[in-house]
Design goal:
Blueprint lengths: L9 H15 L4 E5 L8 E7 L6 H8 L5 E6 L6 H9 L2 E4 L6 H4 L2 H13 L3 E4 L17 H13 L4 E11 L8 E6 L3 E2 H7 L5 H17 L11 H12 L6 H21 L1 H20 L4 H4 L4 H25 L1 H12 L7 H27 L2 H12 L1 H23 L1 H10 L1 H4 L1
Parallel strand pairs: 1-7, 2-5, 2-6, 3-4, 3-5
Antiparallel strand pairs: 6-7, 6-8
Length: 429
């Protein structure tokens, strides 16, 4: 009997906790919401927004201990060796028209395998947008996820319910390592009930109805902003309004959504004033970026005092930072040069994750051996423990220094601060 992709695998079972741990530690704050409300009376197919390349799959993988099978675009399976690796990682190919008609014909076999995954009540995870994009918006959803759901319902919908679970990931930053990640599971769509209660028999129409419903539900789970000419201004307003670290990531997402709704309502009720405001916000954003000031700094009432406090912390931690930089140089130096060659900067975090996953453990082990051979055991143990956190310290210290410098710049840019005050965002929203 041929081995199924969802079957247990000893090596996979050993490696996965290690990968999950690294994925979670790639973010300073990692939060999962809605997991406990997932249906338990059927098979689950997850439709997820796709904004941060391979990190999306890694974040989803680390969001729960459940067995998972992913689907990815078929063109990355061209190389036989890569295809074997992806199969080991429990990833199935899904081909699109752009891959050619011949490739699309392979979807029949893939969909059969995917349906079998669903039949075994193993979670099937897809990114129906088909490509990543570093924006708080959604592309049109492709049909693959709905083909699988409808086929699964035809084959065993009488035995159990088939659900599509809308899922969204929201990041603190798409390009910086060690920021924040929120995984938000939404209210599942019962495909079996949907079809049972529908008077429509045309599969294409049913598919479009499901597509609209899934699009709407995913867009409700993160800071969704319509992708039009006002996107940049609206996102800048949202960041300036809600950059303060109050509450958890889910609460911040809700505040972001509330601000977007207020801005959109203002645009609808006062179109001319809104466009003038958006132009001013965009000018301010350009000035802020040119002066290399983080939007985080604009939320500070006393930026100079904040900068002084950060400076004190940095001064105390500086020896550990230097030691961490030296200890992890074999990780961050190759990572730096690889990232410089990337055509798409969105892959930066994926590269950092991969380099760290492969190089950091042997570095820690080698460092611990050296410490044990050269120092008394109690110092060797302390040094080894510090070494485990050294790469995070290195990254977090650099981020702290970046924000500290930004706070200092913001405190001395009186004209820019006046430009910010003149926006009167607190009065408007």
């Amino acid at each position: 009997m041929a081995r199924k992709i969802q079957d247990s695998n000893l090596l996979y079972s050993i490696l996965r906790p290690y990968v999950d741990m690294h994925a979670r530690h790639s973010y300073r704050r990692f939060e999962v919401h809605g997991k406990d409300a997932l249906p338990k009376d059927g098979s689950l197919i997850f439709g997820i927004n796709h904004s941060n390349t391979l990190m999306d799959a890694l974040v989803i993988l680390a969001s729960s201990d459940h067995k998972k099978v992913f689907m990815a675009r078929g063109d990355i399976f061209k190389n036989p060796t890569v295809a074997k690796i992806l199969n080991f990682l429990r990833i199935l190919p899904l081909f699109r028209i752009r891959n050619g008609i011949a490739a699309v014909r392979n979807n029949s076999e893939t969909i059969d395998k995917a349906v079998d995954v669903v039949h075994d009540r193993v979670g099937l995870y897809l990114f129906p947008e088909g490509q990543h994009r570093t924006k708080h918006s959604l592309l049109r959803l492709s049909k693959g996820i709905f083909h699988i759901a409808l086929d699964a319902n035809v084959q065993f919908g009488k035995e159990k319910n088939i659900y599509i679970v809308p899922t969204a990931i929201e990041y603190g930053d798409y390009f910086r390592f060690r920021t924040t990640a929120l995984v938000n599971y939404g209210e599942a769509i019962n495909v079996t009930d949907f079809i049972r209660n529908s008077t429509e028999e045309n599969e294409a129409v049913l598919m479009n109805q499901l597509k609209e419903r899934l699009f709407d539900r995913i867009s409700e789970l993160f800071t969704y902003i319509p992708d039009n000419e006002d996107y940049d201004a609206i996102w800048e307003i949202v960041k300036m309004k809600n950059e303060k670290r109050v509450g958890g990531l889910y609460g911040k997402m809700l505040r972001n959504r509330a601000t977007v709704e207020k801005v959109l309502r203002y645009r609808q009720e006062h179109p001319e004033e809104a466009q003038q405001l958006f132009e001013r916000v965009n000018r301010f954003s350009d000035h802020r970026r040119k002066n290399r000031i983080s939007v985080t700094s604009t939320a500070k009432k006393r930026p100079f005092l904040n900068a002084l406090w950060k400076s004190l912390v940095m001064a105390i931690a500086f020896p550990y930072f230097v030691a961490s930089a030296l200890a992890t140089s074999l990780v961050w130096i190759p990572n730096y040069f690889i990232k410089r060659k990337l055509k798409d900067p969105a892959f930066g975090n994926t590269v950092t994750f991969g380099v760290r996953l492969l190089l950091f453990p042997p570095l820690v082990i080698a460092g611990a051996v050296v410490l044990c051979c050269t120092l008394p055991w109690y110092w060797a143990v302390c040094g080894s423990v510090l070494l485990v956190f050294s790469h995070n310290i290195f990254i977090d210290y650099r981020e702290l220094s970046r924000r500290c410098i930004s706070d200092f710049r913001w405190s001395f840019k009186k004209q820019l601060r006046k430009e910010y005050d003149d926006l009167q965002l607190n009065k408007l929203f």
